[in-house]
Design goal:
The complex is a heterodimer. By secondary structure, chain A is α+β, with helices and mostly antiparallel strands. Chain A contains 10 helices and 14 strands. Chain A has a 5-stranded antiparallel beta sheet with strand order 4-5-10-6-7. Chain A has a 4-stranded antiparallel beta sheet with strand order 11-12-13-14, with helices on both faces. Chain A has a 3-stranded parallel beta sheet with strand order 1-3-2, covered by helices on one side. Helix content of chain B is about 25%, strand content about 25%. Classes of the chains: A alpha+beta, B alpha+beta. At the A-B interface, helix 10 of A face helix 3 and helix 19 of B. The complex binds flavin-adenine dinucleotide.
């Protein structure tokens, strides 16, 4: 479990990083290292150059403009968990791993890594957010629906770097997840966001990319069960060591109920 | 000054090792740096079963910084094999090469070793070794139909059966026929492992000029390793020094001499003067350190209408893995399973056939609790089924069948002699502390209110500890592990150095031995310094396994302390012309009994003994030291009871432990915090095995849980606040202690499974109890 040999470049600016990435074949960005370093230690990747972006100034900002949170790519999970500007992102970030992982892992790294069970990709999709990407030909904006292509696969090209993230702040939100142990990747997670009368519910852990259900926000008795049921019917999970497909579907229904409880207001019901 | 001697035993004195361990100054094998040292990485088989068609090392040797690549055919290794021996009839002896020869028998087996300037380069070299594998049919499951075996693991055992034995007492068929209620269970337990924080590690150095080998190893059994190395390496035993410095957990996994250890030593001999270091990483550890508890139990039990247990019949398969683990043999788990299955329950009619079956998986070896976490799960499942069939309260049914003080010594149907009888006392205390009535009321309340169900799980167990020569651990091996030695030396300044044969993997043996010696000798705890783990320092100890060290090493420490105390008093009496019978040694001062003022200090006695031979009275020689061995002949059974209330969420399968009580009988307790730490730690490991840890192989024999991402260790987040309590019935040994190292692991699988059955009215036949499994048992469709 020792990394294969690689060269190391400490980038001083986004331009420097992009240039270094473009200059070598099989280069990789090193951000928090919480996903990349284990992969290197297992020798499942062997980049020739690691471009360390941690010292690039100005990529750890957080501010809200016109109802949208603008976050730098180097915002650590711990900082995201602490902020109050975007409570859904905070709740999701607080559920990532353990303290040590949250204090190093970055928002940009999590989105670029695109683990199907990760919290932040689900939040990006639920908020219909986007990433700002710098590349050799300038910058571009990639929406959440286009960013995630498959498990651990994004629309980013090799010499591209996520520099910032835009997350709409929902009017109402909910988040719930189920993990085997404290701090584990979720078996299933659900992030729900309501913008006006639009409802976006995203399930993590049931497909290669965060699974989205978009509806107009329903209301009235039974709306919650209806959406949770529709979502559970909609997902097509597979089985693995930590849960069967059926179990994941059941978790989707139950976690959707929990996440949506704060989003869909129903007439008071008799307690069951 | 108050010179009253306050006994160190029974009090939570500050642990001697903690200054070192808690401030990051521990000295582990991984910390060892020696001049000219090189690093070793092993090339491990990616396939479960294959003939080795060829190994090409050319490219690896071309890697910068790589000095050597060694394979099983290397002349230094080619003639050596580890061969675990047992005189049991029918046991099939097989060879385990230090590096694979001819074929590989499990995924993860070492096929070559690369020696390089550092571990990175060694791994670069390992990657460049090209091995040609010619696949053979793998066997993964130990209870698969033997007719399906195309390629046996070892040619010597065409049916893969390395060992089988039937335990028989009374007439089981007749007793079953006479039973009012008969229950059947078929159970499978999950393969898991000790997984200490520090993986295996070794540094071997050979000095050719005087043919001396030093092996620093994170072993639990340095003296055994020395003896075995002497045999395998053909060196005089006195030329070998094995040093186990600080060790970061063992749990049995490090009570084994591994082929990697032997390979490292053989390579060091082939490269004299160059110390070779191998520090195992987690991936290697999960793949190739010993596994355990991969068993199947087919059971039938008969009960009388009043709940009396009349008969148990059992068929047991234990997955031995690819090799008979050295030196404990393939018998380690099956024989323990058959010997202890019936636990603390009275039974006359018993028949149990156990088997150790070779498969193409990592070898099974000792792991804290050896087989009994599985057998307790099996036995308690029978009792839970019996209670359900009889309509009896499960606790009442257990109580009805316990070995009671009046029955002791009780000859179990496997002929082991139980000296405890404290089971009912443990159960009573556990029921009281846990407050069964309160939890039963809560259970009903939740049922009525439609809230999440809870269940109450119970397990009772007997932990066989401190085995003497008559009960010695292991199946008729060429050695008996009944004794340990301890040397107590009073230094010229009156300080005390103890050279004990025990070893410590974090469980505080330096402290415990110091407490025992301080009290036996009559000095302050702080005056005693303990040396362990170095075969050049201590005379003899079998090491850490079978919860033996407090009993046996502690017994030797007590006797050695007493022996030196007699010497001190004799010399003091002669020096001061006082009758020895009137003298007492307390807190390092010799007193005439009943008198406040000491007549001479231990320091002065020591000064005379070492430095002032002119003052030595007639008949006294110089020096102040004594060595004693202790062997308890039999063992000390330790009783334990665990009770828990556990919530199960039928919609998600989530399992939440609401309360967990454990009461054990540690006999006389030497250090209350260490004892509680042992119990808490072993319950945590038991919960890990019951709910999280599972080493899963696919049908081809690939380990699917190869990292800690998939092999789930419990963390402090998963372990509930444990409520521990004690009963104390001192054992018949010098310190009155009973072992507590393993007992906690024995209960949890039974407790969690029992609680699940109690909560949902289902029978669980396999482990671990995962959310997905709970959800299915609650009616979910996978
Ligand atoms: C024990 C453990 C538990 C964990 N639990 C969770 C969990 O519960 N939930 C969860 O979501 N995550 C979890 N993680 C992963 C963690 O959140 C990582 O921090 C995250 O996935 C990656 O972020 P990073 O900054 O560490 O990226 P790195 O590991 O440095 O990089 C990851 C990948 O993204 C690329 N990359 C990084 N930054 C950029 C960028 N700005 N632009 C383009 N590409 C980039 C890298 O090249 C690499 O391919 C866990 C990790 C560990 C070790």
């Amino acid at each position: 479990m020792k990394c294969p040999p690689f060269e190391y470049h400490r980038a001083t600016s986004v331009d420097d990083a992009v240039a270094a990435l473009a200059a070598a074949e099989d280069s990789k960005i090193l951000a928090g290292g919480q996903s990349l370093v284990p992969v290197l230690a297992l020798r499942l990747a062997r980049p020739t150059v690691l471009v360390d972006v941690n010292r690039i100034p100005g990529l750890d900002g957080l501010d809200v403009r016109d109802g949208v949170l603008h976050a730098g790519a180097l915002v650590r999970h711990a900082a995201l968990a602490r902020q109050a500007l975007h409570p859904l992102a905070a709740a999701a970030a607080a559920s990532i791993g353990h303290a040590a992982i949250r204090s190093r892992g970055t928002l940009g790294g999590s989105l670029a890594h695109a683990d199907p069970a990760a919290e932040l990709p689900a939040v990006l999709r639920a908020c219909d957010g986007a990433v700002v990407v710098a590349g050799p030909d300038g910058t571009r904006r990639v929406g959440a629906d286009a960013l995630f292509v498959g498990a651990l696969q994004t629309d980013l090209a090799e010499p591209e770097m996520i520099t910032g993230v835009e997350l709409g702040v929902p009017d109402a939100w909910g988040f719930a997840e189920f993990a085997r142990r404290h701090g584990d990747f979720a078996v299933v997670s659900v992030a729900a966001a309501r913008f006006g009368d639009r409802l976006r519910v995203v399930v993590g852990g049931v497909a290669g990319v965060p699974h989205l259900l978009e509806t107009s926000a329903p209301s009235g008795t039974g709306a919650l069960d209806e959406v949770a049921g529709a979502l559970a019917d909609d997902v097509d999970p597979s089985s693995d060591l930590h849960g069967s497909a059926g179990h994941r579907r059941a978790l989707t229904r139950e976690l959707a109920r929990r996440a949506l409880a704060d989003v869909i207001t129903e007439p008071a019901r008799e307690p069951t | 000054m108050n010179t009253d001697h306050v006994p160190a035993s029974g009090t939570p004195v500050r642990r001697k090792e903690d200054t070192r361990l808690l401030t990051g100054r521990g000295r582990y094998v991984s910390d060892l740096v020696l001049p000219r040292m090189r690093h070793v990485a092993f090339v491990r088989s990616p396939v479960a079963h294959a003939r080795l068609a060829g190994i090409d090392t050319t490219e690896a040797l071309a890697v910068d910084g790589v000095h050597a690549v060694v394979t099983g055919e290397h002349p230094a290794l080619a003639s050596v094999a580890l061969r675990a021996q047992s005189a049991l009839p029918g046991y099939v002896e097989t060879d385990q090469p230090p590096l694979a020869r001819g074929k590989v028998r499990f995924a993860g087996e070492a096929v070559a070793a690369v020696v390089a300037d550092d571990r990175y380069l060694a791994e670069d070299g390992a990657e460049a070794v090209v091995v040609d594998y010619d696949p053979l049919g793998p066997t993964v499951c130990a209870w698969a139909d033997p007719a399906g075996i195309t390629d046996p693991v070892h040619d010597e055992a065409p049916d893969n059966l390395l060992l089988s034995r039937t335990f028989r007492a009374g007439d089981v068929e007749a007793a079953l026929a006479a039973a009012d209620v008969v229950v059947d269970r078929e159970l499978t337990t999950n393969r898991h492992s000790g997984n200490p924080i520090e993986c295996r590690a070794g540094v071997a150095r050979y000095e050719a000029a005087d043919r001396r080998l030093t092996f620093w190893s994170g072993t639990q059994v340095p003296h055994l390793v020395r003896t075995q190395l002497a045999e395998l390496l053909d060196l005089p035993e006195g030329n070998i020094r094995v040093v186990a410095p600080d060790v970061g957990g063992g749990f049995g996994v490090k009570a084994v001499l591994y082929p990697e250890d032997v390979a490292l030593c053989l390579m060091a001999i082939a490269m004299p003067g160059i110390p070779l270091k191998w520090v195992e990483d987690r991936v290697e550890h999960l793949l190739a350190a010993t596994h355990a508890r991969d068993h199947r139990y087919v059971l039938r039990a008969g009960f009388a209408a009043d709940g009396a247990l009349l008969a148990v019949r059992a068929d047991v398969w234990c997955n031995t893995g690819a090799y008979s683990v050295y030196p404990w043999t393939a018998g380690i788990e099956p024989l323990m399973a058959g010997g202890l299955l019936t636990g603390p329950y009275k039974l006359t009619d018993y028949e149990c056939t156990v088997r150790g079956v070779a498969t193409n998986t990592s070898p099974s070896g000792p792991y804290r609790g050896v087989a009994r976490p599985a057998t307790v799960f099996a036995m308690e499942a029978l009792l839970d089924s019996g209670a359900r069939a009889l309509g009896m309260d499960p606790i009442a049914l257990r109580r009805r069948n316990l070995i009671l003080p009046a029955d002791v010594p009780y000859r179990m149907p496997s002929r082991l002699v139980d000296d405890s009888g404290a089971y009912e006392a443990c159960l009573d205390r556990a029921v009281e502390v846990f407050d069964v009535r309160r939890w039963r009321a809560e259970q009903i309340r939740r049922r009525d209110a439609g809230e999440r169900p809870i269940g109450i799980g119970v397990a009772l167990y007997n932990e066989l500890t401190g085995l003497g020569r008559a009960a010695s651990a292991g199946p008729r091996m060429p050695f008996r592990t009944g004794h340990d030695a301890c040397t107590v030396r009073v230094n010229p300044d009156g300080g005390v150095t103890v050279f004990s044969g025990v070893t410590s993997q974090g469980q505080g043996l330096e402290t415990t031995m110091a407490q025992v010696v301080a009290d036996a000798l009559g000095v302050a705890y702080d005056a005693v310094d303990v040396r362990i783990g170095d075969t050049d320092e201590s005379l003899w100890g079998f090491g850490a396994f079978s919860s033996r060290q407090a009993v046996i090493g502690g017994g030797a420490a007590h006797l050695a302390g007493g022996h030196v105390r007699d010497k001190v008093l004799a010399l003091a009496g002669a020096l001061k012309e006082v009758d020895v019978a009137d003298l007492d040694l307390r807190a390092g001062q010799v007193h005439v009994r009943g008198q406040e003022k000491p007549i001479i200090s231990l320091a002065e006695v020591a000064r005379v003994a070492y430095l002032q031979s002119d003052r030595l009275p007639e008949g006294f020689g110089p020096g102040l030291e004594g060595t004693e061995f202790y062997d308890p002949i039999r063992g000390a059974f330790a009783a334990g009871a665990q009770l828990a209330a556990i919530e199960f969420d039928p919609t998600t399968g989530a399992v939440r432990i609401l309360d967990w009580v454990c009461v054990e009988d540690a006999g006389r307790i030497v250090h209350p915090v260490i004892v509680d730490g042992q119990i808490a730690g072993s319950i945590a490991q038991g919960i890990g095995g019951a709910m999280y840890e599972h080493l899963v192989y696919d049908e081809a024999g690939n380990l699917s849980t190869g990292t800690l991402l998939d092999y789930l260790m419990p963390t402090s987040g998963e372990i509930p606040e444990l409520r521990l309590d004690h009963v104390s019935t001192p054992a018949a040994n010098p310190t009155g202690v009973r072992g507590v190292g393993e007992g906690g692991t024995l209960g949890p699988a039974a407790v969690v499974a029992g609680a699940l059955g109690d909560a949902l009215g289902v029978e669980l036949d396999d482990l671990p109890v995962t959310p997905a499994r709970v959800w299915e048992l609650a009616g979910g469709r996978p």
